[in-house]
Amino acid sequence: MNNLLSFNKNNILSMAKQTLLLLVISISLPATGQQENPLTLAEKYFSEGDYYTAAYLYEQYLSPGKKRIPGANFPLNASRYKKGSATIHLTKFDVIYKQAHSYRLANYWPEAAAKYKQCFDKDSVKYADALYWIAVCQRSLGNYAKAEESISRYKNGYGNTTIPDEMVQKEKQTLHFIQSEIVRPDSILYHVQKLNTYVDSIKGIYAATRINRNQLLVTSTETDTSAKLGANPYHNRMYYAVTDNNVIQNLESVNIPGTDIWLNQGAACFNVDGSILYFTQWKKINGKTVSSIYYSLKKEGGWTNPVLLQSVNKSGFSSKQPFCSADGKNLFFASDMPGGIGGFDIWYAPILADGSTGEPVNIVGINTKADEQAPFYHASGNTLVFSSNGRIGMGGFDLFTAKLKDGEWVYSGNMGHPVNSSRDDIYFFATEGKGLLTDAMISSDRGAGCCLETYIVSKLPKKKIITGSVKDLKSKEPIADVVVIMKDADGNVVETTTSADGKFSFEAGDGIEKNKFILSKSEYKSNTSPVSIENINESDWLTDVINNTPIYMEKKLVIKVENVVTVYFDFDKSDIKPHSAEVLDSIYTVLIENSSATVQISGYTDGLGTVEYNNVLSDKRARACADYLIQKGIDASRISFESFGECCPVELELINGKDNPEGRSKNRRALINISKE
Questions:
Q1: For residue 334, which of 286, 274, 291, 283 has the smallest C-alpha distance?
Q2: pLDDT > 70 in the chain, percent
Q3: What is the Cα–Cα distance from 312 to 156, expressed in whole angstroms?
Q4: pTM (predicted TM-score)
């Protein structure tokens, strides 16, 4: 796959597709009258990586005699390749096979599939590899079942093949991955919409970053009408784009001074305050695309001349696709410079005060032996999004994610369908402060054309359920029929009841951590408990289950009519203790619920002290209980009391001549008899 892919798949095609189709149908008769050799030119263009032009030059060779046009209109200088070039010996179907490769590499999948089929049908032995490429084309066109059939035939039925088994296995794995992705239940949560243009002829708008709600910075292709004779008039440039309802209403060039016509510019980003523009410049040198990262400073009326970022550009290697982190500290980018793991790797470098960068660091945890490109870091979600063709995905480049954990980048996984497609999905951008897929933008060539276009991707949040259980404090057994109210920070409430196994659940919204539960059941003390998340189960495609820690309830004293209840006192005291107050509160409830019920209170002491003193103390204890109920509103006529001093102990106070403090505590009491009249 050629290096131009990462900027804009065959970027010279994006706006030029309509005119190139006319330009490349035939070759001119130059001023000298000497005719160019279409096959020789096709081979040269193929070697230069201009597969679109090569495909049509092969067609010119196969179908000579069509109307010719001036050669200067070609994107490359064709005057070097005259009839005197070395003779090329290819059969007709060899040429068709090369043409099929050209269409495939230019991402013209239907044309490529048709040409491969011509060759395979002609000679399935000589062109056995065509069946593999047919499978690739079918997969790219979404014909997954046919692609499976073709790749299986290729693997099992043809011995005269040259495609490495590793590539065949990866294609099979890709198809299996696609099949698992397209049936994902959560696909219904996604919405994918192409960012359209007000003029259908505008193509190839990609690598979009959001400046504000309605303005983007994008890369696209322009035609340079003043280009020198023989020079490629099509160049990638940066534009400001104004959007309305996902339609681009206007494109305005970002003018960088000192740009020559041979250079392409794009795949850019701003720093935090918009005062620095980081971007890529690239061109072909000796048939190889070489790219470097530059930056320009904002000035009144425009930008300064670009400055090469010395630390991230290494001589003889390419660096591209810069992205400035939201905190302004790091510049992420892709590069094939030494020290990496594969072809292009993801790197980052600290941004210095003047806008330049320090020494780059390779992100070891995510790079593969293939290509990783177009990094984007979403600080709000601590998520690095990048594109790779080195992992199993849906085909071509897919978007993947990684997280920063304890200072190390940890690979998370493929972003899945429909974020990814069976084509190339490369650039990603999401607004800070929102969810990663609340309103994201990706670049993909999944459409009918050949080029990368911008798509808006959003995903509805998964349904969230918070579930918990209620248990008895002492027995730890589940409690059924508990009324559970969930109250949020705004005071809104929802109510449910625990099931036989003590469990409850609610649908949860944002800010669930600020909610609280209010629990009640007649035999238990009421309980208010804040949400306390134990774990979150995210395994379901459509619903996340938030598990709350178990909530425990304590049984309360329940007194019924005709019960005899005991209230205990401290030594030489008649004060109502907290536990005694709970007992008396329960008696009060019984008296309110049973208007005919009455109570009789008997006061007692232990055996210490004089008889006279104990008679007084027991009277105080009986009166204290009566007064408590009267103060709560019970009519005094329903209460009678009597004191008995140290009479009638219920426990021995001396055992074998030794004092028994526990026994004495049981005798310091008041007996309350509840009865109906």
A1: 291
A2: 87
A3: 47
A4: 0.74
